[in-house]
Amino acid sequence: MLSRPGQSAPGRPRARRDPRQLTRLLAYARPYRRLFVLGLLATLVSSGLGLVFPKLFGSLIDASFLKVGSTDTTTLDRTVGLLLGIFALSAVFGAAQAYLLARVGAGVVADLRRSLFSHLLTLSPRFFGDHKTGDLTSRLTADVGTVQGVTSTVLAQLAAQAVSLVGAVALLVATSPQLSLLTLAVIPLVIATAFTIGGRIRRVSREVQDAVAGANASAEEAISGVRVVQSFTAEPLERRRYGAGVQQSFVAALKRARLQALMSGSMSFLTFSALALVLWYGGRLVMAGHLTPGNLVTFLFYAVQVGGTVASLTGSFNQFQEALGASSRIFELLDERSDLPAPARPVPLSRAAGRVTFQHVSFAYQGEQARDAVLHDLNVDVPAGQVVALVGPSGAGKTTLVNLIPRFWDVTGGQLQVDGRDVRDYALPDLRAQVGLVPQETLLFSGTVRENILYGRPDASPQEVEDAARAANAHSFITAFEAGYDTVVGERGVKLSGGQRQRIAIARAVLKDPRILILDEATSALDNESEALVQAALERLMQGRTTFVIAHRLSTIRNADRILVMDAGRIVQDGPHAALLAQGGLYRDLYELQFRRQQGEQAELDAALT
Question: Residue 379 above 90 pLDDT?
């Protein structure tokens, strides 16, 4: 059953919103601490200068209004000059702060994305089977971007706001203790409002992020499988699925916008109400002669600074809430551990001989009962260099069996050995360096032909790339392209035919030079001409390597040294082609069924030609 966009995988607990996650985020700012300290100093200087100009502005008012009729403008001129100097310095330090902190934020985001992507590459196929690609890319992009401000500017803002708040409050009290009590009485109410509404904003922010990720996952699936969508005229279905995810994110975003509007409106009302009261009471003090007009203006500036600082603190608090929601999704991935544990002391494996041994191997996917296992008590010893074919009906466990060799999955019973050692004793990169895979559905990356072949060994020379292409029967069609080896293949190799993609995949495997080779239906989707070229390339590739061949076309495996016939997760027959035919059983049934089908197809073709 299709899951709703944005819906979590069944059985997965929701990530806890732990404020300590912010400490983990800040660890990514550590390499940039010098830039951050400089940015912080620039912020503090800029904030400190901001505390000076209200006092000078008040002096300017008194110098103008309390000296009506005087021609001495010395004080006025000096005050204006000081104001201009302070504004200039504030602008310089403000620009320095903006650049330095933006540099820190960009670096932190880049490092966090690299770290998250690198970690994702270490996880097993089980993890990717449980998560949608769109959800993972959303966490990698949108969620990481959400926490950028927290790891850079917000900290500096907090420091600046602390300086402004403490300094402004101190200067408020020094200017007029009576007005200060009236102003400061509003602050606890502002903070309580911020915490109450901010907690709800945090929860809704997580809902928005989850909904956007769900919509992205639906779009990713539809776009990657657009040919299937269009061939089944399922565009309306995909529109509804994506539209449902967008609507869900829209509803959550509106809910967050309402809360943010409520927060903004509440802060605005409280701030301006406090200013109105200050003006009312301050005006009375001026009229009574207890306060000069300049002091009242100075006090108003400081009161505005206090209100603005408190409002900024609530804004920073909101950013923290949003970052908590995003960071919980990020660290949910970073805390994910592969179900393929690394050995404490890996056995070195520089160049394997290629012997593969299955000893009482059983395998069941996570959560399945033993009776529902895919493989049951398999015992097979494959000497180095032997070509082994795996045949059997669909669902017999052939692909699962070969996927155990490079440890895409771990056996759940028994032991799988390479060169006499359990594969779990080797480091995963060392083991997989010995294994080459040519699957039915070839995946090429959206670069050039050369880059795709070099994927097998990035440090190979141009001549080695060309030799690998020749061995794969690919050199002739590659050089027929105008750009040759620099031809761009398109996403997933869409600009190439199936046979061309498969031969590039074989060239990639040739260049890797593995000791163990896995061919999983490598020719089943090709036409006869392409199959002949690919088969010839495969035969060269198999020479001197331990090879496991999975094929439905029995004609492609009759020359194998050995054929394992599988049924329902068990090996029911084992031997060469001729012996298995003489033995009877499932192999002969499969062979004769396919032979009769091929005879029928040939008869139909002959009749059509005549």
Answer: yes
